[in-house]
Amino acid sequence: VLLAIGRDACTRNIGLQTIGVKINEKNGKVPVNDEEQTNVPYVYAIGDILDGKLELTPVAIQAGRLLAQRLYGGSSRKCDYINVPTTVFTPLEYGSCGFPEERAIDEYGKQNLEVYHSLFWPLEWTVPGRDNNTCYAKIICNKQDNNRVIGLHILGPNAGEVTQGFAAAIKCGLTKELLDETIGIHPTCAEVFTTMNITKSSGQDITQKGC
Asked: What are phi and psi of 182, to 5 degrees?
């Protein structure tokens, strides 16, 4: 049984109202701009307390480091809250980086996107005879930007390790063409991203007959 009850930020009794910092009354979280600045210019917020941002420890660490560099080191680098690799460590792991398909459609328009996807069968599942076509991989490409990969999703063994590796490539501007030109390591789960050729819009069958 998976029970998700959510979390509230403990911001209502620390004096924010005294200095005029606004919070989201529904969840207690703090709205900020793209530099983690609240509505009060000299007050900044980072981490899980941010409204609409990811509740992930590495994100908070990165945002804090970059904020300190901007305030005291002359830097202008901002935290990237979109291309963040993350994983749900359920028995069949789910990993993602970048936009989910629904948000990508809202951001870029469905007509400007191409979604490639595939089911796959890990080699390690063939010996125990576990069900084929239970694992899934998907990439979302922006057709208006050289088919740049703006979202990557995988459901399968070691999804966290796979996603972490591709996250660096996405930060470097990974495109569908570069994926197609990459030689896959056979037989790995990550290899599926180098062999995808079926688009979601085509409606073609994505089941696989072997690893």
From this structure: -85, 130
Write the burial class of residue 43 (CB in 10 Å: 0-12 exposed, 13-18 middle, 19+ buried).
Answer: middle
Please calculate the CA angle 118-120-124 and round it to the nearest 5 degrees: 160
pLDDT surpasses 80 at 132: no
Q: How far apart are alpha carbons 198 and 83 in whole angstroms?
A: 24
**Catalytic status, residue 186:** yes
Assigned token pair, 16: 């924010």
Domains of the chain, each with CATH number or no CATH: 16-73 (3.50.50.60), 85-202 (3.30.390.30)
The one catalytic residue in 186, 197, 202, 207 is 186
According to the model, what pLDDT value does residue 210 have? 64
Q: Which two tokens stand for residue 203?
A: 């409606």
* For residue 209, pLDDT beyond 80: no
C-beta atoms surrounding 190 within 10 Å: 19
Model confidence over 79-125: pLDDT tens digits?
A: 999 999 999 999 899 999 999 999 999 999 999 999 999 999 898 88
1: number of Cβ within 10 Å: 2
